[in-house]
Design goal:
single chain; Aspartate Aminotransferase, domain 2; Aspartate Aminotransferase, domain 1; alpha/beta; seven-stranded mixed β-sheet; globular; 14 helices; three-stranded mixed β-sheet
Amino acid sequence: MFKENLQTLARQHLLRELSLINSPSAPVISVEGREVLQFASNDYLGLTNHPQVKDAAMKAIEKFGVGSGASRLISGNITPHYALEAELAKFKDTEAALTFSSGYTTNIGVIPSLATTDSLIFADRLCHASLIDGCRLSRATLRVFHHNDVNHLKRLLAKPRSRTSTLILTEGVFSMDGDVAPLPEIAALAKECGATLLIDDAHGTGVMGANGRGTVEHFGLDSPHILQMGTLSKALGASGGFIAGPKDFVAYLINTSRSFIYTTAPPPAIAAAASVALAILQQEPQRRIKLWRNREFLHNGLVAMGFQLTDTQSPILPIMVNDPELGIQMSRHLRAEGVWIPAVRPPTVPKGTSRLRITVTADHSLEQLEIALRALRKVGTALKVL
């Protein structure tokens, strides 16, 4: 059965395989023995390899060991976890925060605590798989609104509701399209109908807003009652996820969230590293300035060449090719040119929307951006995309 299914995926150009990378995440990486320019990392601010971040992790290992030894509720609630959560709450301007082992486990743990079989959930059509899986685990009634379509959400909310609670889900910055949710309008609807609003700000945290606090800051929203999910693995360069919100809500999660309760606590070294990364993010705004400068340069170059992009407003720059086979061909040709941009195909994105998902970071040099643009022009022309 497995072999037949794999053959079917291969015929559809949807088969996925792992590529061996034997170097740190950086603008230049070694893929199966060959150095290439990387435009696929979410390490937006280049903090994964920051000396202070690595030093914090090593010092925490010296003091606390590698693993946590138990779940947070048993004996794994170690000082770096507590310190990081206090710092995240202050950064997100909320009363409290709670960390999880990943962004995925954050969403599948938080949503079933917010919604039950008696609840109603409204989710954007392009919400991340972890949000959708969280909805399924909650067994709540799920209604999907058109992507970033506030009017459609409003019409759905206006229909009679007999459920005991209502939850609205959206990403702040959408991970595959790079566009930004209309949060002011969604927040206003949530307040008007008494719904809880949960924003997955994995790709907004550290990137959006005057101080990098995310899409809530970007729009100048009043944040205490908005639930903000984020990750430590993107702009913060570490690993893990978190939720920030009211103190009582976090206390409730500690008692109800299965993916928090029934798992070993994240390594204390990761929490210590994330704390230092969070401090650097705030102390070195030039990193975010460089990120956006690089983003504008690359975006403008792609548009000038005639590539079809999404309505992106972030460092995520997807080139739409629609056909998965064409996406694979472009990716392979780019790799031959020394540029690493994997193709993203269904089911990660909807059928007919395959793409090359380019991400740019603060660590990319102008020369590297120019090399990437030249390679993209050459491959795009050869494959008749341009």
